[in-house]
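G., the chain you wanted modeled:
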Amino acid sequence: MLLGAVLVLLLLGGAAPASAHAGLRGADPEDGSVLESAPRYVTLTFTESVGLLEDSFRVYSPENRRVSLGEPQHADGASDTARIDLPDGLAEGTYTVAWRVISADSHPASGAFSFSIGKPSPTAPAVPAEQVEHPVTKSLYDTGRHLAYIAAALLVGTAAFVALCRPPDPAPLRTPLLTGWWTLLTATVALLVLRAPYETGTAPATAFDASAFARTLTGRPGIALLTRLALLLLTAAVLLWLSRRPAPEPDRTPRAHLAAGAALSVGLALTWAAAEHASAGIQVPLAMTSSVLHLLAMACWLGGLTALLLTLRRTRTPPPVATVTRFSRLAFASVTVLVVTGVYQSWRGLGSWAALTETSYGRTLTVKLVVTALLLAAAGLSRHWTARLAAAKAPVAVEERVPQLVGAAGAGPETKPGTGGPGNEEPGTGKSRTEEPGSGEPEAGPGDRPRPPADEPDRHRRALRLSVLVEVAVGIVVLLVTSVLTGTLPARAEAAAAETAGTAPVAGLPGASTVTIPYDVGTPGGKGRVQITLDPGRVGENGVQAVVFGADGGLTIVPELRLSFTLAAKDIGPVDARLTDRGGYWATSDLNLPLEGTWTMKATVRVTELDQVSASRKVRIAR
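Predicted structure as tokens:
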């Protein structure tokens, strides 16, 4: 779990904009088109179904002022479209349309384009760069997604190990079972709360907007998260009920328990399939079935590995070989399902071999395949040590039965196998077997197997523990890469969007601009960068959010961050932004920039009580 935590922190550093999973197929009016008269509405067509927000469209006039709009809707009821009615009386000139929708697989998609009425404006509207995700919101949301995957594997895998592998002492497995349940519950609540700001690309504080949260509860991702919460509460009730019932017979799990566990596990897996890649694109029913099987196989294998490792390390007596071999069979079946479903999902997401190297989805998938190959190699090693352990235990069991047979025949406490005494006569002679002088062991018969060294099972068990530990560590990496893959635009959808000409977004989206300022204090570890977002980045009142990244690219906490703006051409400034620490990022909502022009933005970062540094960047503020 430590490795998983470290990798999650590393992933937090990559607070880049999320990839859009709904590709824009076409726009009416088209990007860059010049119309003789004002259109009645703007219509967008996407590669998959999309959800609409209250602010899905923003239209800016040639004077860069927002045009008053109504509620967005789907064109003619088609779920892969978005439409907004335009008001009458639009003036001549160039208009900019900024859009933001929610893909069917729950990820936000955004962009911008322009069209002109009559003739293009002499000067195109000065608009900032494409709308970005809020770095803190995205980092928190991604962390919740990663933890949810790991927790699901731990919960489902541990339960499957107890039910199917039947360890004699399941007490040490209560901790991972409860840890998986609580972690998944916490992550699901966090994802539900952060869903609204994640969709709109705003700060985490906007999660407390009642209207936005109500909209989340009626959307597909919100319904999936609510269903997951309900299933987790039902799981807790079932576990509590089972804990109060008499223990089942040894080496046997009642069918009712297996059925209940299977139903809850499938239900939990469906909450992922219903809100990820499988729910959009081609062959949706087959894709969702494959996604559910893939997730359950992953959980049984990787979560079961964790349970096996704890069983090998924490039980008072070594687990019986039967438990280990049962898990070996379960792991083999899980790997088979993973390979079959993984090949199908890769084909569905890629669309072509070239996409493996030419798209982000393909490159991420390649990383997953390489790490999975390492995981399979570790699994093969574990299977080898499992077979060696079973082979080493088998002859010992034969030898251990001999004294019991002798004792049952009335041997005294000093009688040993191979010495004179009842039950040791030579067959057909009535004479006792006698021990050769100095031998100390009976002579091996023609059908006897040699007794292994006494410590051989222990050595095999230690080797198995080590190989399983390696499997668990590499498995966590596979889970995290899988989580990243679900947040990446599938290559097939990217190609479908690219086939449509004239729909590439123009540079610029009103409403937010992002500037990155690097800094270097000159001390070890004193390098980093400040990512500053201005909203709307125009004359008048602006909001500011600033996030500091350390030398390793991860989020870092600094004692103080100051930000000021100076317009030298008009002899204005410096204007102090008066940023306040909001617990992980710095922000203000009332920065007033009174005039348009190129302002100098100066950031002062204090890393320690003694070390601070200032750096500046130019930023264009339009009217």
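The chain has three domains: 19-132+494-498, 135-394+458-486, 513-621.

Shout if anything looks off.
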